[in-house]
Amino acid sequence: QVRLVESGGGLVQPGGSLRLSCAASGSIWSIDAMGWYRQLPGKARELVATITLVHGTPTYARSFEGRFSISRDTAKSTVYLQMNRLNIEDTAVYYCIAEVSTDNRDYVTWGQGTQVTVAS
User: How far, in Å, CA of 84 to CA of 21, rounded?
Assistant: First the structure.
């Protein structure tokens, strides 16, 4: 099993920056990629970005390109999401995900989420 723990959420002013972290543990060798989703109040979860663990290849949802940046530290089994120029519409719960491949099946594991609130 893979377990994910997010950290780094909190309150930030509009225009500010925040960096989220997601640490994976357990069967980390089975993880192909990790990433971030977010869920705005009353909305469905939406993809923010993913990154492959071996090559570090990032993929962004178009609306986040240039403002958010995903990276990983394979030694720490940790993925980061650097968020810049935050605005009130970025207020959401941010979830870390891991795309896991095993001999039996492929699946996605979710973290518990971390709240990001952008307010003045």
Answer: 15
